[in-house]
Amino acid sequence: MSDTYTLYNPTVMEHFMNPRNMGDLKDADGVGEVGAAACGDIMKISLKIKDGKIEDARFKTFGCGSAIASSSMATELIKGRTIDEALKFSNQEVVDALGGLPPVKIHCSVLAEEALKAALEDYVKKHPEAASQVGAVSAVAA
Amino acid sequence: MSDTYTLYNPTVMEHFMNPRNMGDLKDADGVGEVGAAACGDIMKISLKIKDGKIEDARFKTFGCGSAIASSSMATELIKGRTIDEALKFSNQEVVDALGGLPPVKIHCSVLAEEALKAALEDYVKKHPEAASQVGAVSAVAA
Amino acid sequence: MRQVFLDHQSATPLLPAVFEAMRPYFTEAFGNPSSLHHHGLRVRDALKQARQQMAALIRADSEEEIFFTSDGTESANLAIKGVAYANERKGKHLVISATEHPSVMNSVEFLEKQGWTCTRVGVDSEGIIRLDELQAAITPQTVLVAIHHVNHDIGAIQPIREVGRICAEKAVPLYVDCEASAGWLPVDVKEFGAALVSFSPHRFYGPKGVGVLYRNKKARLVSIIHGGVQEGGRRAGTENVPAIVGGGVAAAVAVTELDSRAKHVAELQARLWEGLRSKIRFIKLNGPEPGPKRVPTNINISTEFIEGEGQLLMLDHQGFAVASGSSCVSKSLKISHVLGAIGLDHALAQGNIIMTLGKDNTVEDVDYTVETFARIVTKLRGMSPMWDEFERGVIDSVIAPTGRGKSFSQHAADVSGKPAH
Amino acid sequence: MRQVFLDHQSATPLLPAVFEAMRPYFTEAFGNPSSLHHHGLRVRDALKQARQQMAALIRADSEEEIFFTSDGTESANLAIKGVAYANERKGKHLVISATEHPSVMNSVEFLEKQGWTCTRVGVDSEGIIRLDELQAAITPQTVLVAIHHVNHDIGAIQPIREVGRICAEKAVPLYVDCEASAGWLPVDVKEFGAALVSFSPHRFYGPKGVGVLYRNKKARLVSIIHGGVQEGGRRAGTENVPAIVGGGVAAAVAVTELDSRAKHVAELQARLWEGLRSKIRFIKLNGPEPGPKRVPTNINISTEFIEGEGQLLMLDHQGFAVASGSSCVSKSLKISHVLGAIGLDHALAQGNIIMTLGKDNTVEDVDYTVETFARIVTKLRGMSPMWDEFERGVIDSVIAPTGRGKSFSQHAADVSGKPAH
Ligand SMILES: Cc1ncc(COP(=O)(O)O)c(C=O)c1O
Ligand SMILES: Cc1ncc(COP(=O)(O)O)c(C=O)c1O
Question: Which residues constitute the domain of residue C132?
Fold first, then answer.
């Protein structure tokens, strides 16, 4: 049956079928869109940031099940974090929180990390006043 | 079951299981023993000849089922024939009378022909007086 | 949950009659056909009957032209390498189409490493081989032409009689991979002018574990799996007797049911494509329209702005089994080379879904599929940044261009910093 | 008629539990393991379990070291050619024993045509490999040593641990063909020091249609059947799911029953040989005496002055299934190369019979076999000119020479005008 035999583990499947934070944020403070050339996945993350903290996050993803689940999980994890914390975010957190991804799909979690960082970078570009708080951004994004 | 699925056809099997003319002839007039180098088969045919006619024939064979069946059938066929007729004997008669042999086993019937001819040759050697009747022997045996 | 199986290209359930035919060969008639005692001879007889049944399916003259392998892949390997090695002194050039199955493509690649050369003949946008290119590709060094009858991905039926005529003129043996057609379309080795033909009963309700290779006696072929002298010295190894027996019965049933099966799936195929096209915008059929140029089992579509694996997973979750040629579903992370060969846009290749019909599918299955699939497309487009960007005029549709925005490939290259393919 | 099956080397009936395990995979769980939907994933899980069961039988660390092929022959081809091709740049020399199965011998011959060289290491008169010769045969160019665990014809158990030690010292991977031992003798890939091990469940009450290749992750191996990326890219082609599942269950049963099966057949083996030797004159056991150097399933005898096929046929007619290494039973009309390698006299090789015991054979079977066989020997000797000539002192016995007469070979040469071998 469909529930017993699935390509991904139940957590991944649950995030794929019922993704959290799907959509766009009106008046987002930062938006990042990244793509994986080989696989054709495209991921977009929008952030609402207030007082150096991520208040809200949304994603849209063109990609496979694990790409959708990864963006769902990444936006879940990142909410409430400070920019500094968010800059240290690693794809491994997504993999762990999802209870693992097939080896060939790890790049989906990397894409989620990249989309998040692109969104933070966009935020800093649009909010130069925040640059002091997020000194590390350019280093990371370089 | 053993009767339904056999390596050879029922005629061959019958001649193998119940060979005709098996044994040696006391006071044979001609005995021929031939062998096939490759396969290791050895076949011996003894003949009783009277008035230029084969009165009786016996065989002994070291060899596979089709070698035994071929010698049984060859001795059956040859009985009652004149020496001249016997000299024209061909392995194909054995194959036909047996209702066919697997291609790889045709050489067994050839061996039977050879054993018969060797026995006839032996007869002529031992009975030079019969040479006139059997002018063709040396040509055939050569 | 209601189950709709639309992946008959990858698997078919065993016919009950086939299972019953196989059953005695597991425990009762368990002999080895190489044995000389009655246990062996009994199964040897059974293999002979299966050979006759296979020969009848493809209208071969004699069961002695039928060799058993383990699957369609091995049959293709044997055809390609077995002919190449047998004719090494004559020449070391092969000709294949650009859309052959990987079992052919990769056999050829292996030979290329060993010093052979190969010309891959292109196909048109429907996936039909270019006969003029084929004609030009054959050289005096060519020892084999390999053109499949029907393509596994897009269902395109190749003009095999014409191919056969060209090969006959040039006196080069033709190998026709009939894996995607045998049991569904008539195959006639003589009409095809084929020296070799392969197929596999697991594609038409027979068992896994057996492949068939027909070889015309005039074609030279050496073995590629070495050992004992099973299969007339062309394939060593203990024969998979139950599967061979079952495959023979599946072939016999296919001979009698071929026309009715083909008619049934052709009706469903037309209805399925009509339903999808009318309910879903920005959807494209890959390969020829349903009709004489397309195998009646296959529908291959690209749905724009969404990716194939997601579609497949959501369909699976709803009880629908389908396949996809998207790069995300392949272990190699590459799109199907067939979609590449017909020049399909990369974005459309990513949105690929393959539905293959079988004799047990119904009109209700088809309507239910269209309805469910339309809902899934809406859901996935709602999640897709591409759909949003298309609606906002940032990127354009390939299927129905609006004249606004850049291409998906350009956009993907912009966001990833690298070209999309 | 009473049936006594004494050809377990060529075939074993399926265990009922194995058949039941396979059954759902024909019609219900008929999916293709490459599919991403639940039909495919379900059978993928089943394959994983079968891999674990296979790994357990040979004490491999991980199921990821298990690859499925179609039979023992293909596994041997993959081991030999797959390692040879993978290490082509390192060297092109192989070492095997002179008594390997044809699947090994002929794979090597094929490679020899492609530029490889091979040293065939001799065996003693019992069929045990000469370790000093092996040691000397390995060169810096050697990329693989292939020595079987147990010989298929004469049941000789090779000193694999010593072979493994030599290979480890020389840092050359060792491939051990365990087709004639797995399921009957303990196989431990690590104790053996084996980089590759092959076997096939049809030899221990599993189904035909599946072979197993264990490969230690450190050993380089490329695929020889090309196509899709099944089996971790090591074997393309649709997996034979029911057979793999059944093979796994057969392996699991073998793990638990190995000791009792081995003990049972060892008792029968001793009784059979004791019975034959005491009832029949001029009979010889080929290979080691029953005991630690001989697999407990196998009795290989030569009965002097009569030929093997005839013995086999008469036994079959009485309901007994056996095999023979005589040239008359082989399609190539050659005696088994194993009998040649142990230096067996040609006449004795012609009189060869192989009886292989199974778990369902009984003491009564054995006694009945001895009795029937003795009668058949008498009948055939009565028909044999050789027996007569021996009695008359024209030719001598090889087994118990009397000092009178010439050898069979000399006699055969004399009557045929050509040497006997
Ligand atoms: C056209 C074609 N050729 C060859 C094959 C390989 O056959 P098998 O899966 O039996 O190994 C396939 C399998 O799908 C196919 O579609
Ligand atoms: C020692 C040995 N290796 C390999 C094989 C070949 O295995 P299969 O018959 O499964 O192809 C056999 C078969 O009898 C064997 O005995």
Answer: 16-254
3 state SS of D321: strand
Q: Are D64 and D97 part of one and the same domain?
A: yes
What was the ipTM of the complex prediction?
Answer: 0.94
Domain assignment present for C276: yes
| Residues framing ligand 2 (Cβ under 6 A) | C 237-238; D 71-73, 76, 101, 103, 148, 152, 177, 179-180, 200, 211
Same domain? C130 vs C201: yes
Beta bridge partners of A47: A30, A57
Q: Which one of C200, C223, C254 terminates a domain?
A: C254
C161 plus C178 within the same structural domain:
yes
Q: Please work out whether the CB of residue C179 comes within 6 Å of at least one atom of ligand 1.
A: yes
Per-residue pLDDT of chain A (142 residues; tens, 9 = 90+): 345 788 899 999 999 999 999 999 999 999 999 987 656 789 999 999 999 999 999 999 999 999 999 999 999 999 999 999 999 999 999 999 999 999 989 999 999 999 999 999 999 999 888 776 655 444 444 3
Per-residue pLDDT tens over the stretch D41-89: 999 999 999 999 999 999 999 999 999 999 999 999 999 999 999 999 9
Is residue D18 within a helix (H) or strand (E), and if so which, with residue range? Answer: helix D16-22
Which positions of C are catalytic? 328
How many B-D residue pairs are in contact by the CB < 8 A criterion? Answer: 94
Give me the torsion for CA of D338, D385, B8, C38, rounded to 10°: -50
pLDDT in tens, D82-107: 999 999 999 999 999 999 999 999 99
D176 shares a domain with D32: yes
Question: What is the rounded CA–CA span in Å between residue C221 and residue B133?
Answer: 54
Percent of chain D scoring above 70 in pLDDT: 98
State yes or no: pLDDT of D155 exceeds 50: yes
Q: Which residues of chain B have pLDDT under 50?
A: 1-2, 136-142
Q: Which of B7, B9, B16, B104 to mutate to test the interface with C (most CBs of C within 10 A)?
A: B7
CB distance D405 to B32 below 8 Å: no
Three-state secondary structure call for residue C138: coil
> What pLDDT score was predicted for residue A100?
96
Ligand 1 contact, C231 CB (< 6 A): no
Instruction: For residue B64, indicate whether it is catalytic.
Output: no
Residue C268 and residue C243 share a domain: no
Q: Cβ–Cβ of C1/A2 closer than 8 Å?
A: yes
Q: Do residues C29 and C102 share a domain?
A: yes
Rounded Cα distance between C190 and C61, Å, is 9
Q: Report the predicted TM-score, pTM, of the whole model to 2 decimal places.
A: 0.95
| Dihedrals phi, psi of C122, to nearest 5 degrees | -75, 165
Ligand (nearest to CA of D103) = 2
Residues of A in contact with C409 (CB under 8 A): none
DSSP per-residue string spanning C362-417: -HHHHHHHHHHHHHHHHHHHHH-HHHHHHHTTSB--SSS--S-SB-HHHHHHHHHS
Assess if residue D2 is contained within a domain: no
C384-408 pLDDT, tens digit each: 999 999 999 999 999 999 999 998 8
C266 — alpha (psi -120 to 50), left (phi > 0) or beta? alpha
Let me know if A64 is a catalytic residue: no
In this prediction, residue D185 carries a pLDDT of 98
Q: Tell which atom from ligand 2 comes closest to the C-alpha of C32.
A: 9
Residue D233's domain is classified under what CATH number?
A: 3.40.640.10
Instruction: Give the number of the ligand closest to the Cα of residue D9.
Output: 2
Mutate to test the pocket of ligand 1, among C71, C77, C100, C101 (most ligand atoms within 8 A of CB): C101
- Residue ending a domain, among C229, C254, C279, is C254
Residue D411 lies in a domain: yes
Count of structural domains within chain D: 2
Q: Where are the beta strands (DSSP E) in C173-306?
A: 174-177, 196-199, 211-215, 283-285, 298-303
**Beta strand residue intervals within D71-127, DSSP E:** 93-97, 117-121
